[in-house]
Amino acid sequence: QLQFVESGGGLVQPGGSLRLSCAASGFTLDYYAIGWFRQAPGKEHEGVSCINNSGGRTYYTDSAKGRFTISRDNAKNTVYLQMNSLKPEDTAVYYCAVSICYSDHPAPFGSWGQGTQVTVSS
């Protein structure tokens, strides 16, 4: 089984920062591209970011560009999403998954983790 555990979410004020972690188990992360996705109440599932297996190519949705940074540490079997300048509209449950990092969007497949809640509110 390809399993992920998302962590690092929480409650922050607008303008604050969080660092999300996506820890993989059951497989070697080195071979896979990984995407971050989110779902807010009443909204569709949205691809936020994606990183290829080596970390040399990344994708960000327009709303995340300039604020979020995806990275990976294959030695720790973990992918990160650094989230700065957070806005209330970033409030959502964030998930990671094995993905195909197309040039304009990530396409997930396989199992999902439980997600981590990010709430941005004053």
Beta strands, count: 11
Q: Averaging pLDDT over every residue, what do you get?
A: 93
Q: Taking Cα atoms only, what radius of gyration do you get, to the nearest Å? A: 13 Å
Q: Number of helical runs?
A: 0
Low-confidence stretches: none
Largest sheet: 7 strands, mixed
Q: Strand portion, in percent?
A: over 45%
Structural class by secondary-structure content: mainly beta
Based on Cα principal axes, name the global outline.
globular
| Through-space gap between termini | 39 Å
**Helices and strands, in N-to-C order?**
EEEEEEEEEEE
Quaternary state of the chains = single chain
Which range best describes the helical content: under 10%, 10-25%, 25-40%, 40-55%, 55-70% or over 70%? under 10%
Supply the key terms.
four-stranded antiparallel sheet, mainly beta, 11 strands, 0% helix, single chain, seven-stranded mixed sheet, 122 residues
Descriptive overview:
With 122 residues, this protein is mainly beta. It has no helices and 11 strands. The strands form 2 sheets. Strands 2, 4, 5, 6, 9, 10 and 11 form a 7-stranded mixed β-sheet that branches. Strands 1-3-8-7 form a 4-stranded antiparallel β-sheet, with no helix packed on it. A hairpin with a 6-residue loop joins strand 4 and strand 5 (46-51). The model has no long low-confidence stretch (mean pLDDT 93).
